[in-house]
Amino acid sequence: MKNGLVSVIMPNYNTGDYVYESVLSVLDQTYKNIELIIVDDKSSDNSINILRGIASKDNRVKLVFLKNNGGAANARNVAIKKSNGQYISFIDSDDLWSPRKLEKQIDYMNENNYTFVATYYDYIDFEGESLDRIIKGRLRRNYWQLLKDCPGNSTVIYNANKLGKNYVPLIRRRNDYLMWLQVIKKAHYLNIFPEILVHYRIRPDSLSRKKRELVQYHWKIYREYEHLNYFVSIYLTSYYIFRGVFRKIFNRT
């Protein structure tokens, strides 16, 4: 395992009930050469005090407090700009990593000369209990396959030395999806490490649960950002809707 620095990007907004556990899942990684860059998007809960307490005990944590709320995409961009790592990895402030997540992913990248890697993940509820739902998908994806099968944001890592820093388009939702579409144009393939290394938290108030608006954002991505034609965009939007319904009904991966 090569011990290149990993810059872990974490935006935070009002996740005081979860951020401590999420941060510890990063700091407790078996892979120790990390910097955790947390950008607080002007939280109004107790997040700030929690983050300051953690940072005072571990100098790998770098805190940025924004003066104005600009959304997760802007917060991620601020963190990416400040990053120094050979690798850039992402985690949302309510998700959890397994202890060997980075170690296994980076070994996998180095052994196979991959530059863009994600993992399987599962879902937990707001209390951290398993929802018995695992997301796997195709193990190797090109651009067109990624359009239909987006990885979980908190599973992704890429080699910034080879692919450069990639910034998030400033749309409110599915901005991570847009980033991966940018990255894969450079990497050519996204490869999936076939193990559950991330636990994705479902909260009643999470943005990702507003399904109708997510469909609208998918359409916006296909037409306005990726400049796909009308019929391809219809197909991909329909695929996204029916795949979500299928997974929900049959609990499929």
TrEMBL record:
The record's section on InterPro entries has:
Glyco_trans_2-like, Nucleotide-diphossugar_trans
Q: What is its EC number?
A: 2.4.-.-
Molecular-function GO term, any one: hexosyltransferase activity
What UniProt keywords apply to this chain's record, in alphabetical order?
Glycosyltransferase, Transferase
Q: Which residues form the Glycosyltransferase 2-like domain?
A: 7-131
Q: Which PANTHER family match?
A: GLYCOSYLTRANSFERASE, UDP-GLCNAC:BETAGAL BETA-1,3-N-ACETYLGLUCOSAMINYLTRANSFERASE-LIKE PROTEIN 1
Instruction: Give the protein's recorded name.
Output: Glycosyltransferase, group 2 family protein
> Species name for this entry?
Oenococcus oeni (Leuconostoc oenos)
Origin organism lineage = Bacteria, Bacillati, Bacillota, Bacilli, Lactobacillales
